[in-house]
Specification:
Elements: H1 2-34, H2 53-60, H3 62-95, H4 100-107, H5 109-112, H6 115-125, H7 132-139, H8 151-179, H9 184-191, H10 196-207, H11 209-224, H12 228-233, H13 245-254, H14 259-295
Length: 296
């Protein structure tokens, strides 16, 4: 009877798995096939097989290099700021004895908003004529800026909005890690005379390393794929100062109508993310194996 129940359970889940795999696999295979063809929508009768020419054209394109640099600037700055601010928030949350549930509910509010809503909201707040940010700055004697229209302020503004949107997630994950840490090592360190910085550097950071690696992986993947916020707030401008690699691929595919080159660019991102994820998870597995050996 137990065997029949297990089989029935598997049969009930199987349709959902098949549908999910079909939805995922078909676009992947189609884009992989398209990346090896000269595939411009405006020329439907001309589809020669050109091997890796689309990949080479993407790698040789100067705009691709610029978009990669912009993506890395946003990703590195956002991850560093998110972890610093997230650690501070998580630390203070773990020390507050009361109202933690209320503070957590307020903290996760930016996470409830869609990327489109976040982009539109901050675009209105930063509007040089109607935005409340410039109005408040003028009230304290600071000159108003067109934050999203100047090359020197557009990229930092995108980083700020991304940090505002994603820091609650980082803080929440770090907070859950901090409150789950064992108490005994910290009590021993206190008895031995360790100060707060020493306990943080030699105990908290090493114990939180698996969570930090998982967070870095998640945030790195999300930031490398960053498109929606750029599209809503700046559309890659002014010029190409905020154009990420994902936005550039969208422009190649849906403005230049070159789906072959756009598909090649997408697979370059997939390969890069796969390499990064493999490196980070190998590091995570090494930490896990060392922890098991230590316990053993």
């Amino acid at each position: 009877m137990k065997k029949k129940r297990i089989q029935l359970k598997h049969w009930l889940v199987l349709p959902a798995i098949i549908i999910m795999l079909s939805v995922m696999i078909f676009p992947l295979l189609f884009s992989l096939r398209t990346s090896f063809y000269y595939y411009i929508i405006s020329k439907p009768t001309y589809r020669p097989f050109i091997w890796f020419a689309n990949y080479l054209n993407m790698l040789k394109d100067g705009q691709v290099l610029n978009s990669i640099v912009v993506t890395l600037k946003i990703a590195i700055r956002a991850v560093i700021i998110e972890f610093i601010v997230g650690f501070i928030i998580a630390h203070f949350l773990s020390k507050i004895p009361r109202y933690q549930n209320f503070l957590l509910s307020v903290l996760i509010m930016p996470m409830m908003l869609s990327s489109i809503a976040v982009g539109m909201m901050w675009r209105l707040l930063l509007n040089p004529d109607l935005g409340i940010v410039n109005y408040l700055l003028t009230q304290i004697g600071i000159k108003a800026y067109p934050w999203l229209a100047l090359p020197k302020t557009a990229l930092p503004t995108i980083v700020f909005v991304e940090v505002w949107r994603s820091t609650p997630f980082v803080a929440l994950m770090l907070y859950s890690g901090i409150i789950s840490l064992p108490v005994e090592p910290f009590e021993s360190a206190t008895i031995d005379g360790a100060n707060a910085w020493q306990k943080f550097y030699y105990l908290t950071l090493p114990l939180l390393q698996p969570i930090i690696l998982v967070l870095v992986t998640i945030r790195a993947i999300n930031l490398i794929k960053l498109y929606d916020l750029i599209f809503i707030m700046t559309h890659g401008g002014p010029g190409d100062t905020t154009e990420t690699i994902s936005h550039y691929i969208w422009r190649v595919g849906f403005t230049d109508l070159d789906l072959g080159k756009a598909s090649a660019g997408s697979w370059i991102i997939v390969i890069f993310i796969s390499i990064l994820t493999t490196f980070l998870f190998n590091r995570l597995f090494k930490i896990g194996s060392k922890t098991q050996k230590t316990k053993g």
